Amino acid sequence: MSMARVESSLEVRVRDDGIGIDAQFVPYVFERFRQADSSTTRSYGGLGLGLAIVRHLVELHGGTVSAESDGAGKGATFIVRLPLATANEGTAAAQLPGDSAAAPSLPRAAFDVRGGDSELVGLRVLVVDDEPDTLEILCAVLNQYGAHVRAAGSSMDALRALSEWKPNVLVSDLGMPGEDGFALIGKVRALAPEHGGDIPAAALTAYVRDEDRRRALAAGYQTHIPKPVEPEHLVSAVAGLMKLTKRV
Questions:
Q1: Domain extents for the chain?
Q2: Which of 30, 47, 179, 187 could make an SS bond with 55 (beta carbons 3.0 to 4.6 A apart)?
Q3: Is 201:222 a contact under the CB 8 Å cutoff?
Q4: Which of 112, 169, 172 is nearest to 144 (CA)?
Q5: Per residue in 106-128, pLDDT tens?
Q6: Nearest C-alpha neighbor of 171 from the set 121, 133, 216
Q7: 124-242 and 2-86 share a CATH fold
Q8: 15-29, 100-114, 155-169, 232-246: segment of lowest average pLDDT
């Protein structure tokens, strides 16, 4: 990273040596929900919102952000330009890293769900997601509502748990590397009922268009839960699925 004063602006350049950006995609890199690879089996997560949020925040401060890359596999450079405040504008001068004043701390979002009596008490729920943080939160929510939860980080782990643990409900992310949630539910529905082939299932996905919901239902899921997941929505969906099974 480098910083320099360019006329009346502070220019910050951030360079990485990652996967780079294809020249044809550079003009769209800051657009919402735009990704060079938008398949459900890509090896990295995200919604295509991060850089759009960066641009929005920079523009709120009167600045600009742009990207440069020599192509796929050659890294990328992101350039942020922010206007420097002046004394006659009645604002405090911008502080550069190393100034004595500490940056204000941001409050961390509270995570709170209701415990106690619940329709989920004793229910065995298999939760599948390749993102460890998301998986931990989903399991924590369901556990606090009395469910017995097993976590799986891949389709293979989920199929193993299905045969060994006999869960009552399946909750699976759709976008996972290798075998995605569509491949998983296809394999599950090919199983005999006594082996879990008829388990009620909910699809977790950041893609919330009507066509995405219809595709999930057509693949074999009974319900569609959008990300980011609201705890109350998750619990309600799982409770609804429980009514579809008698294997509690």
A1: 2-86, 124-242
A2: 30
A3: yes
A4: 112
A5: 333 333 444 444 789 999 999 99
A6: 216
A7: no
A8: 100-114
- Tokens standing for residue 180: 């995605």
Right CATH for 124-242 from 3.10.50.40, 3.40.50.2300, 3.20.20.70, 3.10.180.10: 3.40.50.2300
d(CA 234, CA 141): 8
**CA distance to 29, 50, 53, 208, 209, per residue, from 224 (Å):** 28, 24, 26, 9, 11
CATH architecture observed for domain 2-86: 2-Layer Sandwich (3.30)
Arithmetic mean of pLDDT, 84-98: 49
pLDDT tens digits along 153-173:
999 999 999 999 999 999 999
Q: What is the per-residue DSSP string for 13-47?
A: EEEE-SS---TTTGGGTTSTT--S---TT-SS---
pTM, entire model: 0.58
